[in-house]
Amino acid sequence: MYYFFQPVYLYSPYARGSYRANEHVPYADPRLLYQHANSLVRPVETQPNKAQKIAQRQPTNTPAPKPNQQNPYPPVDSDLLYQSANESKKLMEDASKVLERLSTSRDFDTRIMDHAQQSDMEEVKRLIDSIGITSKVDIHFNPDGLRLEFSSEVEGSDCCKLTISLRWL
């Protein structure tokens, strides 16, 4: 038993009701959209051509319409951001001093590592402060490395923080 597939030839992609190749289908206007084979036909909304688009444009000398509502947000005050940026520059200068000292003096590095290994926090803090930094620094160390957190305050609140992590193992 053999079954042969009979292909379906459509007269037009817009004529969805024609299922046989020999069936006569009247001309289908491409601007019309068939919703269903037996339903009524409704015209498709066409896009305006280039000339119509140009004609619809507003003249360029007319000012753009202004929004009816004002800005719902309060006016910005950049004073705190300005002060925070200046304090951050100071933190970076202090961090640069510490990194310069650590990168140039192996004897200093050895002393910090020895005291950190003995968990002598006071001596590690004293060694870091001996570099001449003015910022508040929190020192954390573990067997893998050293972490320095430089922080500063503006008007009694924390404004900026700079963290440096260095490995020694």
Can you tag this structure with a few keywords?
single chain; 169 residues; alpha+beta; 3-stranded antiparallel β-sheet; two-stranded antiparallel sheet; elongated; YuzC; Inner spore coat protein
Sum this structure up briefly.
InterPro entries: YuzC. With about 170 residues, this protein is an alpha+beta fold.
Describe the structure in your own words:
With 169 residues, the chain is of the alpha+beta class. Among the domains are: 8-38, no CATH class; 85-167. It is built from four helices and five strands; from the N terminus they run E-E-H-H-H-H-E-E-E. The strands form two sheets. It has a three-stranded antiparallel β-sheet with strand order 3-4-5. Strand 4 and strand 5 (157-167) form a beta hairpin. The relative contact order is 0.10. Residues 33-38 have low confidence and may be disordered.
Q: From the alpha-carbon coordinates, what is the Rg to the nearest angstrom?
A: 39 Å
Give the % helix.
25-40%
Strand content: 15-25%
Helix/strand order: EEHHHHEEE
* Low-confidence parts: 33-38
Q: What's the average pLDDT?
A: 78
> What is the number of helical segments per DSSP (H or I, 4+ residues)?
4
Number of strands: 5
User: What is the rounded distance between the termini?
Assistant: 80 Å
Shape type: elongated
**Major sheet characteristics:** 3 strands, antiparallel
Based on secondary structure, the structural category is alpha+beta
Spatial strand sequence of the major β-sheet:
3-4-5
InterPro entries: YuzC (IPR058870)
Protein name: Inner spore coat protein
Region (Disordered): 43-80
Organism: Lysinibacillus antri
